[in-house]
Design a protein that fits this description.
Blueprint: E1 22-23, E2 29-30, H1 32-37, E3 50-51
Antiparallel strand pairs: 1-2, 1-3
Length: about 60
């Protein structure tokens, strides 16, 4: 199951489950402004950052 991290790994802005965030294939999580500033490339693995799917239910 996808790990829904609660904050951007760069600036620590909250990334709520139902809010916008971008992730790579290793689930590194960044807020949209940080992802944009990094040209949508994960600084940890070099992977592509894409919009994270939203989850509204707590599982």
């Amino acid at each position: 199951m996808l790990e829904m991290k609660p904050a951007c790994e760069k600036c620590e802005t909250a990334t709520p489950k139902d809010g916008a965030a971008e992730i790579c294939s290793f689930e590194c999580t960044f807020c949209p402004p940080c992802a944009e500033g990094m040209a949508h490339v994960c600084p940890n693995c070099g992977g592509e950052l894409l919009p994270r799917p939203k989850r509204t239910l707590d599982l």
